[in-house]
Amino acid sequence: MSSSKHPAPEQVTDRLFATERNPEDFRFDASVARVFPDMIRRSVPGYTTIIPMIEVITEQYVQPGSHCYDLGCSLGASTLAMRHGIPHTDCTLVGVDNSSAMIERCEHYVALDDHDLPVQLRCEDILYTELSNASVTTLNYTLQFVPPEQRLPLLTRIADATLPGGALILSEKIRFESEAEQDIQTRLHHEFKRANGYSDLEISQKRAAIEKVLIPETLHTHKARLQDAGFDQVLVWYQCFNFVSILAIKTP
């Protein structure tokens, strides 16, 4: 793997919720974009494992002459992982995000990256972005921000655009059927954040800000919907606490 060549994002410490603030919904604005690498590293268990494995999975499923998409690319960590997993020079790699602040910073990291494969970046809504001839698509902690009623149509569009033998990598925060398990996994996640330096105030305020815009679902719901969308094989390849990454494949 060539992940060591990826440019290291600027590590500005996330202090967005460190002081008392008026409750408001979480938005991927310029203030979040500035601290995003630090925020996601300290908030999402396993993130630093998932990113390099996206490179490995991409290399396994990418097809010559095909399109690869990173939907909700933010600063481009998964985009660059996909880029380094694509050995074919005739592939097209597209990163899509509806936050102009994220796309602007993503352009910077793509330019710094040591790789020749061009990357197209689109600042647009993933619900309406054009998809075709896809061999690998990534939704890395993106679907959870899409309104639940729009998730199946989006996944169906992705599946319809995916070539036989192609795959979707879907990473999500999930909830559990059992309230007891939900409580345990939530507590462990909060302890993970505390171990990474977040205070109780930061954890509480971030949770209040994000709970109306990040709507998690059960693993069963995700698997069933991916199959309904048109994927033939659906499996969990990674889980840490209440965060999972799923591989959905269209069989040849």
From TrEMBL:
Keywords: Methyltransferase, S-adenosyl-L-methionine, Transferase. Signal peptide: none annotated. The keyword Transferase applies. The keyword Transferase applies. Residues 70-166 form the Methyltransferase domain. It catalyses: prephenate + S-adenosyl-L-methionine = carboxy-S-adenosyl-L-methionine + 3-phenylpyruvate + H2O. Its EC number is 2.1.3.-. InterPro entries: CmoA (IPR005271), Methyltransf_25 (IPR041698), SAM-dependent_MTases_sf (IPR029063). Transmembrane segments: none annotated. S-adenosyl-L-methionine binds at residues 47, 72-74, 97-98, 125-126, 140, 207. GO terms for biological process: methylation; tRNA wobble uridine modification. One of its GO terms (molecular function) is S-adenosyl-L-methionine binding. NCBIfam families: carboxy-S-adenosyl-L-methionine synthase CmoA. Catalyzes the conversion of S-adenosyl-L-methionine (SAM) to carboxy-S-adenosyl-L-methionine (Cx-SAM). Homodimer. Belongs to the class I-like SAM-binding methyltransferase superfamily. Cx-SAM synthase family. This is Carboxy-S-adenosyl-L-methionine synthase.
